[in-house]
Prior knowledge:
- By secondary structure, the chain is α+β, with helices and mostly antiparallel strands.
- It has one domain: 2,3-Dihydroxybiphenyl 1,2-Dioxygenase, domain 1 (Roll), CATH 3.10.180.10.
- Helix 1 packs antiparallel against helix 2.
- The longest helix has 13 residues.
Amino acid sequence: MIIDHIGLGVSDSEKSKAFYIKCLEPLGIKLIREEGNTVGFGKNNTTLFWFGPSNEPAMRVHIAFAAESRAQVDEFYKAAIAAGGKDNGPPGIREVYHPNYYGAFVFDPDGNNIEAVCHKPE
């Protein structure tokens, strides 16, 4: 990985926390730290994804979380939609990227494009 961590500004930390707890759970990504209204998620006690409140208008971002299997991508999508995410592309092959690119896309509560992707063949 070439990035150490990612941070986002969000309009409502509690709403975003509830969303990400549910949609990242199928990927094995958990809430690790909270410092006031700043929240950190990751794996193996390593926090890689942070967010906190921001009053500034934010540019929308795209973040793709790695999935270990296509089933995890499917579960991510179901959990994200159930948590209030908006569909931006259901689970499926995206051959435009490569023949085994299996991804699903949702908009989070702030309109960021959040993806789970598996690059392995079925």
